[in-house]
Amino acid sequence: MTNETMLVTGATGQVGRRLVPRLLSWREPGDDIRVLVRTADAAERFTAAGAQAVVGDLTEAADRKRALDGVAVVVNAAATFRSPTVTEAEMFAVNRDAAVALARESVHAGVRRFVHVSTNLVYGPSVGRPAREDDELRAAGVGRSSAYPRSKRECEEQLRVLNAETGLDIVTLRLPFVYGDGDPHIENALPWFTDKAAHERMAVGHHADVAQGVHRAIRAHRPGGEYTAYNIAGDGESTVFELYELVGRSTDLAAAAGRSVEDPWLGLVDIGRAYRELGFRPIYPSARAAWRDGAL
Fold this sequence. Notes:
- The protein is α/β, with parallel strands linked by helices.
- The protein is 39% helix and 16% strand.
- The chain is built from 11 helices and 11 strands.
- The protein has a 7-stranded parallel beta sheet, sandwiched between helices. The chain has a two-stranded parallel ribbon with strand order 7-9. A two-stranded antiparallel ribbon has the order 8-11.
- The model has no long low-confidence stretch (mean pLDDT 95).
């Protein structure tokens, strides 16, 4: 294989900042990792770590064009999440519009593979079992609270059409609740769990396994180039009670224990396809295993 340049977007985000150092350590001799970042300070940090850096904004066409110059592989890890300061329009602008524009421009730039980082929230309500990649994407709702899963779902729908129209090799990774490597995600998410049952389960995935999934998606042999999605997660789910316990926080167990779980399959995914086709094997099969190994 000839030397290649890989572009990573979202490099300063919670996923990206933990992903890029691993990709740098795993790259083949002669390969380059390039990041698109919004500030000169961020560019300096990544350059010092051994990456190329382009200062720009993913929502700007001219900046995307500069970042794509000479690139063979794109990893789109950029995303805007739910936050009191983020509008619904901003989430769609980054999560859908900029991502699809980047993929379309990747065709003209000669990119051979586009790896898109998505979320298992695109599935929406369950179908009575863990979600599989060929299930219909049913994330819905109205307003800012549902804008993140809707924007990611609509992005995937448009990427699938783009793949059919252009043949661009697109691999989508649907991530679960991501944690580990000092990420405060568990702690920050606890306010969202206050009305949930203590025994409610969710799929979780460590940053080390997210990076493994991305690396395997980049390297996978895909002769057909059809649009393909993979669920990436650990082997075991975590309960709401366990997440509180792992970060040393208490909850009102009497109240939580009395709540019911309306949809016991919501947020759970089948990772069999990633096993079979990517050779994916979770390094941290559960959040408890990561806690045991000091990797939270």
